[in-house]
Amino acid sequence: MTKILLRNIDVPDFHRLVTYESAGGYRSWRRVVENMKPAELIEEVKASGLRGRGGAGFPTGMKWSFVPKDSPKPKYLVCNADESEPGTFKDRLLIERDPHAVLEGTLIAAYAIQSHTAFIYVRGELAFGTTRLEQAVAETYQAGLIGKNIFGSGYDLDVIVHRGAGAYICGEETALLSSLEGSRGWPKLKPPFPATHGLFGCPTVVNNVETLAALPWILDRGAPAYAALGTEKSKGTKLFSVSGHIAKPGVYELEMGYPFKKFLEEDCGGVPNGKKLKGVIPGGSSMPVLRPEEIENVNLDYESVQAAGSLLGSGGVIVMDETTCMVRAAWNIARFYAHESCGQCSPCREGCHWMEKIFHRIEHGEGEPADLDLILNISSNIMGNTICPFGDAAAMPAAAFIKKFRDEFDAHIAEKRCTLAN
Amino acid sequence: MALQFSPETLKKFAETVARYPKKEAAMLSVLYLAQQEFGYLGPEVIAYVATLMGQPPAQVQGVVCFYTMFNTQPIGRHHIQVCRTLPCALGGAGRITACIKRKLGIDIGQTTADGRFTLSEVECLASCGTAPMMQINDDYYENLNEEKTEKILESLT
Amino acid sequence: MDPVKITIDGKEVITSKGKTVIQVADELGIAIPRYCYHPKLSIAGNCRMCLVEIEKMPKLQIACNTQVAEGMSVLTQSPKVLAVRKAVLEFLLINHPVDCPICDQAGECWLQDYYMEHDRQASRFDVGKVHDRKKTIFGPNIVFDGERCIKCTRCVRFCQEITKTNELTVINRSDHSTIALFEDSVLDNPLSANVVDICPVGALTDRDFRFKVRVWYLQKTPSICPGCSTGCNISVESYQNRIARFKPRINEAVNSHWICDEGRYCFHDLAGGERLTTPLVRQEGGLVAATWEQALQAVYSGLKGSSSLAAILSGRNTNEEAYLFARLMKKLRADAALEVFYQERQLSEVEKILVSPDRSPNFRGARDMGVGSSDGFDGLLRLLLAGDFAAAFIVGEDLTKAADPATVRAALQKLSFLVVQDTRVTETSKLAHVVLPAMHFGEKEGTYTNRKGRLQKLNAALIAPEGALPDSEIFAGLLELAGEKNGYGTPGQIFAALAREIPAYSKLTYDAIGAQGIELDSGGRAAS
Question: Which C residues in the span 82-141 are in contact with A, Cβ-Cβ below 8 Å?
């Protein structure tokens, strides 16, 4: 199958400019700056059907087009490299092994919105990845690929690699902007939207690493080549991070629409040690878990997974076998959200930890029969009522685990312990 | 004796601030410089950074206390951060943490008496495919088992 | 002003572009509950209490951050909205301590009030509340309780946006988020106690008021602050005939939603002290009690017989009192030197937001009434201390606080006749030949004219102690001895008289003043 994002991932020293360029790197960038108008570029990316790969799946070209072209304010392009969604580790791979693809994509996106300052916001824990990106940026400055009057076109572009400091919420675009402005990572109220009022109140676009890394290929081969891959509404390829009880964990690139079951059993080697699949989360911990029977006919694209009652999200596939206590798993995830809530709005600030505490007491043998419906109710009270989607991200898995594994939860409560064989 | 950056760090500070369109955007980067220079971000350091950045100290404190990678207390030379989120938990993170506790004789949140290690549990580090794993200072240690973990600890002075 | 037509709860209304749903609702008197929204602070949108249903929008929207759009249809009482209010209240209550029995906010607490109005469900929370610092001193006037705090951030925004002093911040994350000061810094800016007013719950409470009296026992009287000539609108809140606290009243033309700390607590001094409850006349042994008849006669004789007279009125006397005072003094001696007490001080930047540099709330009104000369108060004081006057009549001020006390005392002792009219014993009253017990700002009805020329009304909140008379009655009594019987019964009648005489007040009527006051140059139209 066509590899776009991972096509060079195993090439030694591919993080170095000389290697990257020898494989055709920055050819697209040069073409964009020398031959394309921003409007053309936006249309091209729209035509490719590329959708945001951070989790929301919003059409990238359309997002770019929301930036007001004649605004007198400076425009900003931010590469969201704050990958923190549990189960997701694909951006890290690109940052560490193919940073120039990420960078070139960042440049292309910046040009599309006529930004002259691009930021790459990297989560603080990825120290090695940050170094790789900084080196890549330094190399491109030296080579005159960025900076002032690029290729003599009159277009200026600076790139700043900015380190986060440990907060999952900073992956949410407006929280990222608050953090980039030097504040606590508090999401901002929308409206207004970042496209018109983003960083420092200026028009801003935030794109995910994987989204941006696809751009050089798309610009090189053309939008139709990208749009020829995938399904009608989910074009191109996507990276899937596979972890948990699986024989071959790692990052895989699939054409959109690839059958989920086949992917797990064949490409990823299936559940090891002769165990049976019990549940799988398709798109990072925020997304509802699916039972094995629920993925029978599911394909890995946005629409198919949504129809199955979950979401493709970041493509973080977490596999759980029959030895997994779902109560414990649900508690683990609830604890994650309780820890990462920014604390700004009441439903999330108070509700996340409330759910965690109830899961905790169920897991430790002190659950009450009413606890499950209580969690479901708390979850639905959080959904849709918060400043940002974090509330939904915390609410969905809590409800999904209970709904999909109700019997196990009931037994765990009744028996006051985990009822699994081991 | 008032606290301040060394001349080299002051230079780095100036370069850092100059990169950003607005001074306040450099806050996280400046706090990292301060943490590196002074070991941790205590009240004196926060007050100093506030003066450097032209911001109220209360505001800087609000920022420092929000992010997990800023330490407001001194920690050991090697900060062991074991990931505890679901994929690592499924991969046996609990055993790794128990092993470290045993080996070092400390609990989560504590530092060894000789100041060598501090142990923390952290959330997902984007290394789920190589679980269980831990981060020590800037380095990731992946695909751990108890034996490997002990060897890593022994190698760090 | 682009007109926009929207519907709220089925009612069509024309409003203007740029307004938010909550603003329109407030204007129409449609109650949408809220915590973090405050009309004078930036929009935080964090409490989620104001979520309303907007037709055609799938999710509920916060009214405070939703701008009106043509054809928008808002529902503030739909089943979804009623349900979400219960949900939000539940979230706010799960970690809230059941402190009501010991919390000053009880009776004016927005958690209590909204719970009774919108919730009323039993608690479902039994997994251990989050704990935080309790009764933490934030400053000389403010105590903080972290457990009661609902993190609405009004206090933080107040210190950032109104006083711009930035003392407060939010620290930590998740449900360990809390409000904090930096290290050992103190919340003591000149407007600090306003955070107590804007805190919807008992997280920030007033140290001065702590545990004094339950708010439902308070009698609330609208009045004007006697602290300075800004004339902030206040509510004098009293219990068992004693002032328990001041609270601001909203007046966009004067003080917006705020009062300064000095004004807020000035009643302790101004309404306190050892009250005078009987006229006193000096005999050989000292000051002895006398009847009003005796005392007024002594005053009249003493002043009539003096060769020169300095008459100083307090800046806290009303226009009605000042009017009579001016008439009286001129009647006693045509060349009497009259001044209203007026001394200026330096103001800090934060004080300048609200405070005037004087401590004479009605200096302008008094001067309008004729209590003033070309020398000004400083000039008159200098002459008085230099011994230029044989007699003096001092109302409501202790002059030993106006200049070097020893110098003042020496000068006052040299006077051949000194009359002091005040509410309590002072260093000045101790030197008088006649002392007349009067009333303070909280015991009288009347008007003040603030520095900017706004006429505002004081109302009596307390009953003065037995033996004291209103200043206007004392002046009227003296005027009668001087041959002018006027028979004014009420401040309104005195106002009518002064309005006839003083051109700047001629178009105004007492009844038109209202709760928000009236500009002198408004031509008689009441303030809106």
Answer: 84, 87-88, 90-92, 94-95, 124-125, 127-128, 130
